[in-house]
């Protein structure tokens, strides 16, 4: 069994229920079990123009630690299917979403393909990933970026509230 970490997020169609349903869907993946689940975190939207912010609902984010026999691309395909089952649409980059499932880390695998980059290339900059990841794996290091605890202390994260 391999260790993997998955970020979950939603800001449409009852986001708390969407993330909780995604946790349950992860439990049902073949040859996979959820080891730890973070708390839920409410996160103000980022990456939008100032005039859009009042129209974009807050996100609910969380992270899960998995043990899996699925290979990285198989796990990614399973995560994309969970998103599809939830009704995920991709009308434009960073669009509001019913569910987002990102494969953050898979063992010590480093890979870059057109479909998957491991470790996730922006996770070290995102408080909505680092804070729940720190909650369930405080000693974890992100390759080429260092310990999560150090990354959290080096950055100021605003607009993130643990529920």
UniProtKB/TrEMBL annotation:
EC number per UniProt: 2.7.6.3
One function term, GO molecular function aspect: 2-amino-4-hydroxy-6-hydroxymethyldihydropteridine diphosphokinase activity
The protein's annotated pathway: Cofactor biosynthesis; tetrahydrofolate biosynthesis; 2-amino-4-hydroxy-6-hydroxymethyl-7,8-dihydropteridine diphosphate from 7,8-dihydroneopterin triphosphate: step 4/4
GO biological process annotation, one example: folic acid biosynthetic process
The 7,8-dihydro-6-hydroxymethylpterin-pyrophosphokinase domain, residue ranges: 5-137
The keyword Transmembrane helix is assigned to this record: no
InterPro entries cross-referenced by the UniProt entry: Hppk, Hppk_sf
Alphabetical UniProt keywords: ATP-binding, Folate biosynthesis, Kinase, Nucleotide-binding, Transferase
Function: Catalyzes the transfer of pyrophosphate from adenosine triphosphate (ATP) to 6-hydroxymethyl-7,8-dihydropterin, an enzymatic step in folate biosynthesis pathway.
Family recorded in the similarity comment: Belongs to the HPPK family.
NCBIfam families the record matches: folK
Name of this chain's protein: 2-amino-4-hydroxy-6-hydroxymethyldihydropteridine pyrophosphokinase
Source organism (scientific name): Methylotenera versatilis (strain 301)
């Amino acid at each position: 069994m391999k260790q993997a970490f998955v970020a979950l997020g939603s800001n449409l169609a009852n986001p708390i229920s969407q993330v909780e349903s995604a946790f349950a869907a992860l439990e049902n993946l073949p040859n996979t079990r959820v080891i730890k689940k973070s708390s839920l975190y409410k996160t103000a939207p980022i990456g939008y123009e100032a005039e859009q912010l009042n129209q974009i609902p807050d996100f609910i984010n969380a992270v899960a630690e998995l043990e899996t026999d699925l290979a990285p691309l198989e796990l990614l395909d399973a995560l994309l299917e969970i998103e599809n089952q939830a009704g995920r649409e991709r009308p434009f980059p960073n669009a509001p979403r019913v569910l987002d499932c990102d494969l953050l880390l898979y063992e010590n695998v480093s890979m870059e393909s057109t479909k998957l980059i491991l470790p996730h290339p922006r996770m070290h900059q995102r408080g909505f990933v680092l804070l729940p990841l720190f909650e369930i794996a405080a000693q974890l290091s992100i390759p080429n970026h260092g310990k999560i605890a150090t990354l959290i202390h080096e950055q100021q994260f605003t607009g993130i509230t643990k529920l």
